[in-house]
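re the bet — no i am not wrong, look at it urself. input seq straight from the record:
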Amino acid sequence: LHINLTSRPLATNHMQSFKGLGLRGVRVVEFASIGPGPFCAMMLADFGASVVRIDQPRPEQFPTPVLNRHRKSIVLDLKQPRAVDIATQLATKADATIEGNRPGVMERLGLGPEDLMSANPRLVYGRLTGYGQYGPLAQAAGHDINYIALSGALHAIGGSEQPTVPLNLVGDFAAGSMSLALGMLVALRHAQTTGRGQVVDAAMTDGAAYLMTLFYGMQSMGMWHDTRQSNLLDGAAPFYRTYTCMDGKAVAVGALEPQFFRNLLEATGLSSDPDIDPKRQLDPSYWPQLTQKLQQQFMIKTRDEWMLALEGANACVSPVLSMNEAPKHPHNVARNVFQSIPDPTPSPAPRFAAHDPSNNDAVELSTEPPLAGQHTEQILADLGYTSGEIASLVDSKVAFLSKDQ
């Protein structure tokens, strides 16, 4: 099954080069799930993979989230054998599949790795769960916060009194989506060289622990304390934290290196303060005093006044921007970090260029994610079903069309 995505509106310069679309020709079948699974499929599709999403029938049609962009959708009732046959046909012609159910669900449907890989030995079978395919918690319910809690990551984030929830970026998207995407690319390479597919068991708990490699390493060397807000990078150090300004907005300070710390003191007017000793920058006993000094100083101006005063100071200070502000920042505008379709939407990252780093504009996004079932007829026709057979599948509620059809 070759799903042609080149008809989506891409900028001309992208059509004329490989920029960011290196996955063209890779065919992926995505079994619909929530959050990190769709994000992984979105990343693959953003960079050129042809992704068919198998949605399931719902009583009501909800607006399709942006994570579903750049793919085609077929709705199948996978509780029916004929729907399972169609899904199997799609997987037989694919390079990879993505699913995000609890262990055993796909096997009970007849769509597990053994079922699909026996028909397609080169298939990469991507599986994304919270706790993995085996282990005492494999069948336990959970969400991002539970997975990062088990990895040690959540304990390390936040103030001294209690951990802070870092959105669901760490577990769902960094430890889940990114981990699965990398695993699938590794397995696709393996299939390319050996002719054999693999099952990719991406567990968000595993991924979150992997992301903590540096901190576990620092702890083993005696360079990290297992107490929140007592370390170099967790908000305890006065030169690596946020400060509130006069208008209630904040700045982020990351002046880790001595030269940047000296620049910070100079630019904020604290270099001549007799109570401040730059040589004691790495002395934790000195940190509370210095933090208080910096906080008092940042309160004398608004955030934007400080950014103007610090311009060119090379002091590693940035404004803490809201989601409404970030798309308007000049740097983000210059790099096309956000695209308006019509509301601001982050561009795919990273960028790709053959030689000139400045000639690597972001992949242009299409305007609308597909409706569930929007491509049911087309996908079935591509599989060889006649119009009469498609009508029969729809009438018998094996397959469904979008409500706009």
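see?? Residues 1-18 have pLDDT under 50 and may be disordered. told u. also Residues 35 and 172 are 7 Å apart (CA to CA). so pay up
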